[in-house]
Amino acid sequence: MISSFKSKLTVTLVSAAMAALATSVAQADGTINVYNWSDYIDESVLKDFEAETGIKVNYDVFDSNEVLETKLLAGTTGYDIVVPTGSFLSRQIQAGVFQKLDKDALPNLKNMWSVVSQRTSIYDPGNAYSINYLWGTTGIGYNVEAAAKRLDGKPVDSWDIIFNPEILAKFQDCGIHMLDAPTELFPAALNHLGLDPDSHDKADLDKAAELLKTIRPYIQKFHSSEYINALANGDICLAIGWSGDVFQARDRAAEADNGVTINYIIPKEGALMWFDQMAIPTDAANTKGAHLFLDYVMRPDVIAKASNYVVYANGNKASQAYLDAEVLEDAAVYPDADTMENLYVTTPYPLKIQRVVTRAWTSVKSGQ
Length: 368
Fold this sequence. Notes:
Elements: H1 2-28, E1 31-37, H2 43-53, E2 56-62, H3 65-74, E3 81-82, H4 86-94, H5 114-120, E4 130-143, H6 144-150, H7 160-163, H8 165-168, E5 176-179, H9 182-192, H10 202-215, E6 221-223, H11 227-233, E7 238-242, H12 243-256, E8 262-265, E9 272-279, H13 287-297, H14 300-310, H15 325-328, H16 337-341, H17 351-366
Parallel strand pairs: 1-2, 1-3, 5-6, 5-7
Antiparallel strand pairs: 4-7, 4-8, 4-9
Helix pairs in contact: 9-10, 10-17, 11-12
InterPro entries: SBP, Sperm_putr-bd
Subcellular location: Periplasm
GO molecular function: polyamine binding
């Protein structure tokens, strides 16, 4: 009986060791290709993951959802993990470009924040295909001194500073940048007009386009990231931008000690709450490695590194114990309950309406 037990134990231990070795070798031989937004992760996250798993991470970046979507819809991405924004993710799921997550391989899902998961389920029912990486708002970044001078000390707290041409004109001399993101600017214009920011009605969108055209003469440039350094260096004084980008500009200006003070506000009328979601394309070559990476990122201390680095909120409730106080306690990063209620989300435009918006945006940018 004892001899038999020892024999079985030996076989069990050897089998377990062989399985562990096989897993280790598989991990060591693995490579995953990640496609994420630029300036959007603490590089130590990638290095630590490689050291722990033996999986090499090839990390590429993009600067617009349109660039990512073009690759996804082309059919062969070459990536194991991509990070689309929720409204784009939704129609990409419908197009069949993602595979469902194996949630049994993601034990750290238990750390996710229900408040965020409920909102992301608008784009991904049951969060079957994606997990939240980071989220934020689209609001106003500005040079504090320049704003005080041009507004006679009145607070910057409203979309009026952008959508009232008489007010916006006061900033033309010091430079104004706007996101090249029609899916975010049309909702902002609709919201300012008192219309549903998620309207897909052509008549409403035409009204938004007309409003945007009235402010076009004062916009120096449309882009997706240049405003970070432009604000930080004092080259511009006003921008419609993503919350974390403006915080990066604020911090860069402070580090440079160049006399520029940058602030970000969520206008009192409300703003867009957006979500960047990590998903696995159907053509992923290393699905197992992709799941390991997703689960690693969902560790509270790991995703906290990303939030602390880029100053964006994340959808991981447990991570809040690891966040820098200046991030967690900043109401512009983690808004209070009342502000959260005032944030809106949008759903993807049907293809026919998307074409309308794209043409209208081209007209806005060209000033025609």
